[in-house]
Structures are given as structure tokens and as C-alpha cells.
Write a structure and sequence with these properties.
about 500 residues, alpha+beta, Aspartate Aminotransferase, domain 1, Ornithine Decarboxylase, Chain A, domain 4, seven-stranded mixed beta sheet, 14 helices, about 35% helix, globular, binds pyridoxal-5'-phosphate
């Protein structure tokens, strides 16, 4: 089969002169800086059209479907975002009802906004001890579907940003027994099918539509993603229509070639590449598991939270039991060791390992974590010595003082919901109604009891902690204050200082 990325390369050496877009005319001297202008073309002869694929792009998408075992696959050059918008729009009629996990990415909420959908939320089982979301309970899905017969589709995120996989098989069977499709946001799981070391992909677990960002976990350029259609419960024609609506009419050939090159490489050498990668990963995990204060999390440490499986390429370092929090660990890794992690949360830092990692990179991470762990051990033994020698000195109530203190403070938080981002909020209005209603700005503390007309997210992971139409609670405000104190990135509110919030005018 002809490969798009090879055809582009060969075309870049030919003497065809472009009297067509793009405006740089493949001339590297038309602007300063280095860009892949030589391969950046438009829909010229021989290069097909993503929105009406008949040739090389049709074959490329068919090959992606073969690799993943889907009925049909669609390229996205606007990430999983466009694919999620399309899947939801195709599966649920305008103004209809959807059952969705409350820990979905903001793109799902944007689909609700654009299509005026009524959500029923399922909250993931939370592990309050570690501050991590668990999986989605199949029983809960069943109950919601029984109670809401007008729901047209179920949507969950699996794996989560942290690598938690839900029981997709059982959830798919339940959804199907109620006559509705299951959409799985597998944005973080495009690598699953290349090694048994990872969980089984939702494509093989009965989901009807599966969305994967290639750029997140595979060697592909940012913005690249795939939408896999795995049954006829969602109409292929509708998916195509909406992929055309939510994506540019001028999809980048550089991005599409990157998808094609990624698929070609993995189809040919994926098994071997992943064998080496998972070997390195396993050695890395074994080494990191020896650290006692900065603990590498594993699925068995998060028991009882509907965790069906766990993606071990996620390197989750818990700071619970150490003297530092997630944000501080991230800062140390960045500033002292020049390691930039994927995400920081209150009690942990997340590093992503992929097939693109080098052994040297993984070793640098091990060395850094071991060094920080050693320092923490020294601090802890100094603390123990001090306590033994000075038994009458009152303890301060510092949240991260020690493992016992952290445990106590977490137990009380578990009762109040404090610290857990996805606290249950009362949904008073649909998203479009709240976003488009007349609004008024209030200082954060004075907004309690009012209906938000804004989103608020911790970014990453970009999951809304407040959705327009939800009633603002005191707990939400306290959580926001704490995130700000800890230096976590809070986004979404129109006031970038997060001191005020817009609410629906009464
Ligand atoms: C769970 C999840 N779904 C969807 C997306 C959107 O993916 P993309 O950036 O490829 O549009 C993200 C992005 O972080 C995500 O974390």
C-alpha cells in the first residue's frame, strides 16, 4: 500500500511548483525559523481529501482500523477533542440525555454545551487516601440506566489520566442490554493494543466508539488522534458528518502523515519496540518501588475502588507520608533535576512513560526519585529523634507533617469531601442555559449557594471541578482556596486571579 508519509517525502523532492495553498509555497526562506514547509501541502492531486477519502487517506484509515481491530477508524487532526465532540453528537440527539462519568475531560462538557444535552453523572469511586479517582461501577451504570429510560448513550473515561481502567466489558454489556451505545474516551490508551503488559483496549471489550489520542502515548505529533467505530450502534455516516463539522476543512498533511508513519512503524515493529519498552519500564518500576517516602503507586495500593485494571506506563508518585506535597515534588524534579512531569496534584505527581522513552531518561528519573526519597528518610529520622528527645513539645498540625498526620487529616477529609475535586454538586440548569443567561460577578466567598455560569478546572487534567449550571458550595470554595495555596493550576474562570466568579443573575 502507498504510504502517505512516504508520498509526501517523495513529493517534497519533486519539481512541481505550487500555485496553490499554503501561502508559504513550500519556500523555507519565506519566513524565519524552521518549519516542515516542504511537506505542508493542501489537497493536491494524488493526496486525497480527509473529508471525502477515496484514495491514500481512505487506505490509511482502513489500515488504522485493521491495526486496532475496529470496524472503521477516522483520523482526527484536532485531537481526541474533535473525536469526542463527534462521537457524542452522533450518538445522542440534540437536546437528548447522556449518562456520563463526572470525571470526563472538558471536551465532553463542551459537547453537552453545543448539543444542549442533559447529563446524568456517575461519580467515580474515589480513593480519598491517595487523592485519586478510581473506576466507574457497572452496577451504578445499570441503576442510572434503569432510572433514566431516555438516556441515549453512556460515556466513560478509561483509562483515566492516572491510568485507572474501569470494567468496560461489563459496562458495555449493561449499556447494550438497555439498547444504548458505550463511548469510551481512551485518549490515554492508544498504546494498549501493542503489548500484553497493558490493559486490554476498550475496542476489544465491547465498546461501540473508542477515542484515542495518538500524540499522548505513541510517537505521533500533537493534535493527532483516532476515532474507532466498533459496532453499528452509532451511525458511521453521522460520525463522518460531525468529524467534518468539528475539524478544519484544511487538515494538516504533516499531522496526517505523522499518524500514518506512526501506524506503519508500529504495525511493522510495534511488538518488538514495546517488548523493549515494557522491559525497561518494568526495571524502572521495580527500582522505584523500593522508595519508601515517595511511593510509586500500583493498582494493589488502590484496592476497592472499582479499579478493573491499571496502566503501568503511568508513573504516579504519591507524596503521602512525606514532608512535601505534589506541587513541591514537581518543583524539585523540575528545578533540581530538570525533569518535567506530566501533572501535579495535591498528593501526587504523574510521569508518563511511553515507547518513545530512552533508557537514559528513565534512569534519570529513578536517580532523582531515589535522591528525594533519601532526603525524606533523613528528615523523617531527624523528626523521630526530635520527638523522642523532646516528648512534651506540642505537635503542629501541618498537613504534610508525617504519615500519621497525613492519615488523620485525610480521614477527616474523607468525611467532608475536602480535597477531592469531584465533590457532588447540585445541577440546577443545563450548561447552555447557564452559560448564556445574564450573569453577575461575585467575590468567590459570596458566590456560595448561587448557580455558576462558568467552568473551573484543575489543568491538567482538564476535568471540570465546577460546571455551568451547578450550585456553588462552601466546600468548592474551600477546595479552590487550598488549590491556590498549593500552587495548583486552576483554569476556566474568566477572572484569572480566581478571586471572583460569574454566576447566573437571579
Ligand atoms: C481524558 C482525556 N480525554 C480527552 C482529551 C483531549 O485530548 P486531545 O488533547 O487529544 O484533544 C484529554 C486531554 O488531555 C484527556 O485527558
Amino acid at each position: 500500500m502507498k504510504r502517505l508519509y512516504k508520498e509526501l517525502e517523495s513529493y517534497s523532492h519533486k519539481d512541481y511548483y505550487p500555485f496553490h495553498m499554503p501561502g508559504h509555497k513550500r519556500n523555507p526562506f519565506s519566513v524565519d525559523g524552521e518549519f516542515p514547509f516542504d511537506r505542508d501541502i493542501t489537497e493536491i492531486n494524488g493526496f486525497d481529501n480527509l473529508h471525502h477519502p477515496m484514495g491514500i487517506l481512505r487506505e490509511a484509515q482502513e489500515e488504522a482500523a485493521r491495526i486496532y481491530g475496529a470496524c472503521k477508524s477516522f483520523y482526527s487532526v484536532n485531537g481526541s477533542t474533535a473525536a469526542i465532540l463527534s462521537a457524542v453528537s452522533a450518538a445522542v440527539s440534540k437536546g437528548g440525555e447522556i449518562l456520563m462519568a463526572r470525571n470526563c475531560h472538558k471536551s465532553v462538557y463542551h459537547a453537552l454545551y453545543l448539543r444542549d444535552l442533559q447529563p446524568t453523572y456517575i461519580y467515580p469511586h474515589a480513593d480519598h487516601k491517595l487523592g485519586i479517582n478510581g473506576g466507574i461501577s457497572p452496577r451504578h451504570v445499570e441503576r442510572c440506566l434503569e432510572e433514566n429510560p431516555n438516556i441515549e448513550a453512556v460515556l466513560i473515561t478509561s483509562p483515566t489520566y492516572d491510568g485507572i481502567v474501569s470494567n468496560v466489558k461489563e459496562i458495555a454489556e449493561i449499556a447494550h442490554s438497555h439498547g444504548v451505545p458505550l463511548i469510551v474516551d481512551e485518549a490515554h490508551g492508544a498504546h494498549f493494543c501493542f503489548s500484553d503488559y497493558f490493559p486490554v483496549s476498550a475496542v476489544d471489550m465491547g465498546a461501540d466508539v473508542v477515542i484515542q489520542s495518538l500524540h499522548k502515548t505513541l510517537p505521533a505529533m500533537t493534535q493527532t488522534a483516532l476515532l474507532h467505530l466498533c459496532s453499528d450502534r452509532v451511525e458511521s455516516g453521522k460520525i463522518r458528518r460531525f468529524m467534518g463539522v468539528y475539524q478544519t476543512s484544511s487538515p494538516s498533511y504533516v499531522l496526517m502523515a505523522s499518524i500514518d508513519a506512526c501506524m506503519d512503524k508500529l504495525a511493522r515493529e510495534g511488538r518488538q519496540m514495546f517488548k523493549e519498552f515494557t522491559g525497561n519500564l518494568d526495571t524502572t518500576r521495580e527500582r522505584l518501588q523500593k522508595c519508601r517516602h515517595i511511593r510509586l503507586l500500583d493498582a494493589d495500593m488502590m484496592g476497592g475502588t472499582e479499579i478493573y485494571d491499571y496502566d503501568r506506563s503511568k508513573l504516579l508518585f504519591s507524596t503521602v507520608g512525606s514532608s512535601i506535597n505534589g506541587s513541591q515534588l514537581h518543583t524539585i524534579l523540575r528545578e533540581e533535576f530538570h525533569l518535567e512531569m506530566e501533572m501535579e496534584a495535591e498528593y501526587y505527581v504523574l510521569g508518563m512513560a511511553t515507547v518513545g522513552d530512552t533508557q537514559e531518561g528513565l534512569e534519570r528519573l529513578c536517580n532523582a526519585i531515589e535522591e528525594i526519597d533519601r532526603r525524606e528518610a533523613e528528615k523523617a529520622s531527624a523528626e523521630t529523634w526530635k520527638e523522642a528527645g523532646e516528648p512534651n513539645i506540642p505537635q503542629d498540625s501541618g498537613e504534610y507533617r508525617d504519615a500519621k498526620g497525613a492519615e488523620d487529616s485525610r480521614e477527616s477529609k474523607e468525611k467532608t469531601g475536602e480535597g477531592h475535586p469531584y465533590i457532588r454538586m447540585k445541577q440546577m440548569m443545563r450548561i447552555p442555559q447557564a452559560l448564556e443567561a445574564p450573569e453577575r460577578r461575585y467575590p468567590l466567598e459570596e458566590s456560595v449557594g448561587r448557580i455558576s455560569s462558568e467552568f473551573a478546572y484543575l489543568y491538567p487534567p482538564g476535568i471540570p471541578i465546577l460546571v455551568p449550571g451547578e450550585q456553588i458550595t462552601g466546600l468548592f470554595v474551600r477546595n479552590v482556596r487550598r488549590y491556590m495555596e498549593q500552587g495548583l493550576e486552576l483554569q476556566g474562570l474568566s477572572d484569572s486571579t480566581n478571586e471572583t466568579i460569574c454566576v447566573v443573575k437571579e
